[in-house]
Amino acid sequence: MRRENVQSLLGGLEAPEPEKQINVVKDEHLEETLEKLSAAYKELLWMSIMTFVESGYALKTMKKLSKIDITPQAIFEFVSRLEQQSKEKDFPYKTSSFISALVQHSYDAGHNNFELYLENLNVCYLCSDLVGRTQNPIRLKLINGSGSDWFQKAKNLDVQIIGDADGLALIGTYLCNFEVSGSVGEYGARGSLCSNFRLLGDVSKNFGLESTACNFIHRSESVLDSIRKVAGKGNKYYLLKDGKEIPYNFWHKLKKRFGR
Hints:
The protein is α/β, with parallel strands linked by helices and 260 residues long. It has helices at residues 3-11, 28-46, 49-55, 57-64, 72-80, 91-108, 221-230, 248-258; strands at 114-117, 138-143, 157-162, 177-180, 196-199, 215-218, 236-241, 244-247.
């Protein structure tokens, strides 16, 4: 093809627009907050577990960080970066205490709606002893974590757990709402009072032992029967059918009436 013909062809095409540069703007305030949280957390990891417990380190740390606006986004980002420290000694206990203190501090400062992405993290006693308010419970979503003793003695919480909750979780809670998509380990919800448990997975033995005035929701009649055998007084039970929560006693009456 002759050169002039090529030029004539190209002349009819629009010149491509120059590539636009994408400028990633960092949230300087967020990064500064994360640096301060990381510094406090590293100090915690270097401390012996005995010193950590006896010194009340988590509480002292919150006093040091009291002037910082710790937002739910900052806590989410901080937790998302913890995997590289997960092999540190006493990681499960120290880390859960630190995260719990951050959530309580942030909530007390007026924030809410927390999301913790816990993939590949094993933390115990996470969010235990958290205290919300009746008119404004602490709202939390936990995703894909592992570890025992979560939410022990928590008050006024609204919690969604995506994944499993290991043994001794949700014990002694008061005025809390829990939805768990996975299984719950042994003795879950023991001694809880006036709390709701919407359970979508398997439940280990003795779930709900000695609980009082709670609501238990599950899709399995056998699971509800096992909870009723060990639970305390004043509880209500609901069978989950097609997304609807049917009072368990009413369901039994229907079965007897229609022979289902």
